[in-house]
Amino acid sequence: MDLPMGSATRATPALHDMEAAELSAAYRQGVLSPVEVTRAVLDRIGHWEPQLLATYLLRPEVALAQARASEERWRRGQPLGPLDGITVTIKENIASAGDPVPLGTAATTLVPAAADAPPAARLREAGCVMVAKTTMPDYGMLSSGLSSFHPLTRNPWDTNRGPGGSSAGAAAACAGGYGPLHVGTDIGGSLRLPAGWCGVFSLKPSFGRIPIDPPTLGRVAGPITRTVSDAALMMQALSRPDARDTMCLPPADIDWASVASVQPEFLKGLRIGLLMDAGCGLPVETSVHEAVEAAAALLERAGAIVEPMAPFMTQGMLDGMDHSWRMRSHLDMAGLPAERRARVLPYIRQWADSVAGMSGAALYQAQQQFFATRVATLRACAVYDYVISPVAPMPAFDAELPSPTDDPLHPLEHIGFTVPFNMSEQPAASVPCGFTPQGLPVGLQIAGPRFDDLGVLKLARAFELIRQPMRAWPQP
């Protein structure tokens, strides 16, 4: 029998909507139990999940067993840290011991993972209650919730729209109130795009700040939360070292907790570049442009110096990276047995196979665009303290589409603002900054110098304080 540590009758916010710091304080005071909070989160998932379809391996009894263990640690006054007993979801491509890792595709052989990948290991060590894994598209190569393995994931703000991707389920779960903490991954925008389209916060950290396994050029794991402070709290655990990541940064003494005390005065005198033209891909739609310009005006009124930036990306850079990723996927799929390869989403197969006849010289030139993007991004940003831009040129698009263009030969025309910061290794966040006339969220991207993850979080927190109040969260 589970013995609650306090009254089950709570004033607003509802338990599933509470921030991680609030829950941790309530556990410490003995007025809330990890068990009753986990039950509230599971109940919320039960109401929303038939519509959102954001989870994979949702196992209530496993989660409740973890919550009971956490409850006992809090009773003894021996919590594992401030995240002990806080619910979390983990993107399914981040391995968790004993669970298969389908990578969003029906082509994968389902073999249980031998161990937790670093992000899952750090959160388990911190005592988090892992309520579920979350969905992603095939191989993480779509900015949508469309998958050949998972059901179609939808956006809580409008279930006719997609949540974005590839951290599709994580962002949908966060906006839907599946607890406060969620973890995704990002190699070209896969944290920030769904966060922006779902109206939640995400940090793509500096490359190497959060250990990940396997490490890949530009690939990172990061938090998706409703508040900046919760993301900073997660960083205390996620940024701890792990020898399996051969490209991780050395341990650093970063005062992540200081984010919670930031005030709008932090903005005074900051020189901020405003990038409204990515230089490639699709043009910025009017509703997004207006929301980001309004955000820039708020920062100016708070004392920041906001200056327009010229675009630094080119279509050639974007196309080169796209074609390099196509060749990687083409070769990966070429090694699959025919019956398994046929299970891959047709859009992904067509995208990858389009480079089957690519010459070695052309592939070399395409691969050089990763470095060209890195150099151009770092040079353009060097004269500013921070850079702001739209996260994506459009709001959330039709849930049934694999990409905004629905064209496998032009599939990445929406990542021009996000992908350069993967290649430059700079931290970049998505923070909600407004809504379209149709009620869809718009994300503001904030990028900072390499290794200044803390500064990006502080700027995001200061903006969070001065922006217009968020609308009520969507309800099932």
Strand order of the largest sheet: 1-3-2-4-6-5-10-11-9-7-8
Radius of gyration: 21 Å
Shape: globular
The helix content, as a percent range, equals: 25-40%
C-alpha termini separation: 30 Å
The overall average pLDDT, rounded, is: 96
The major beta sheet can be summarized as:
11 strands, mixed
Structural class: alpha/beta
How many individual β-strands? 11
Low-confidence stretches: 1-11
Helix/strand order? HHEHEHEHEHEEHEHEHHHHEHEEH
Strand content: 5-15%
What would your notes on this structure say?
With 476 residues, the chain is α/β, with parallel strands linked by helices. Helices cover 36% and strands 12% of the residues. It has 14 helices and 11 strands. An 11-stranded mixed beta sheet has the order 1-3-2-4-6-5-10-11-9-7-8, with helices on both faces. Strand 10 (428-435) and strand 11 (441-447) form a beta hairpin. Helix 2 (34-52) packs antiparallel against helix 3 and helix 2 crosses helix 5 (168-176). The two termini are 30 Å apart.
What's a quick, concise take on this entry?
By secondary structure, the protein is of the alpha/beta class. 36% of the residues lie in helices and 12% in strands.
Walk me through the topology:
Layout: H1 20-29, H2 34-52, E1 55-56, H3 60-76, E2 87-91, H4 118-125, E3 129-134, H5 168-176, E4 181-186, H6 192-198, E5 201-204, E6 220-225, H7 228-238, E7 271-274, H8 286-301, E8 305-308, H9 315-334, H10 338-341, H11 346-353, H12 360-381, E9 386-390, H13 419-423, E10 428-435, E11 441-447, H14 453-466
Parallel strand pairs: 2-3, 2-4, 7-8, 7-9
Antiparallel strand pairs: 1-3, 4-6, 5-6, 5-10, 9-11, 10-11
Helix pairs in contact: 2-3, 2-5, 5-6, 7-14, 9-11, 9-12
